[in-house]
Amino acid sequence: MLRKRSYRSIRPDEEVEAVRESCIIAATVLDELCKLVKPGVTTYDLDQEGKKLIAEMGAESACYNYRVGEKIYPGHTCLSVNDEVVHGIGKLSRVLNEGDNITVDVCVFHNGFVGDNARTVLVGNASDEMKLLVERTQEALKLGIAQARAGNRVGDISHAVQTFVEGFGYNVVRNFVGHGVGRTMHEDPQIPNFGRKKSGAKLYPGMTLAIEPMVVAGSFDLVEDEDQWTARTKDGKPAAHFEHTVLVTEDEPEILTIPKK
Description:
Layout: H1 13-35, H2 43-56, E1 60-61, E2 67-68, E3 71-72, E4 78-81, E5 84-86, E6 101-110, E7 113-122, H3 128-146, H4 154-166, E8 171-172, E9 178-180, E10 187-191, E11 208-211, E12 214-216, E13 222-224, E14 231-233, E15 239-241, E16 244-247, E17 254-255
Antiparallel strand pairs: 1-6, 2-3, 4-6, 5-14, 6-7, 8-12, 9-10, 9-11, 11-16, 12-15, 13-14, 16-17
């Protein structure tokens, strides 16, 4: 038991409930923002609406002012378009066009705990190729979540995502991975979207995990924009990204990021 409790992402019941509340907020905000996606909308518009919704629900953005070294993230959400994989910053100059896709990533703090989720949305009528990339990335998330069972290992999640995605000729991103989530946005264990079965950290009931396939139509090599945050594919091929925060239980994994009805 002492060894298991070394993971901060293994939570007692009262902390699980706190994470659950944060996840409901994050999922509700994400759902509302995705409804606003249409041609002509700017990513700045979406970010400002996200800021407002998060505040209305009594939470704070976990992205805003997030620091990595000397870098400080300026947005309240992450909004990544087409070949942008993660960490796209809302900008007035970034206008959504017919046929684009946009990943909306919402992460919040509420009562000391984090809820984290993301979804890629098609803008208007997209190409069949774009639709398939998005659909298959979402399916990869479902397959990864199905492996988030007590007694399995992180590698079982990773392997399920990787083999499914690569079967269609896509690649999974190597630079960014899923992670434990709880009192902070990024906790152990790391959850890559590539790996071997039965490898990595063992999964225990009470672990709260952000599982997030990031899939690219071409090479997994990425470059960073001048804003020092936005990561995009080096070859300019499109990307898709889906994420849920999941609770490992004694039985089926439970998705915590379900919107409030």
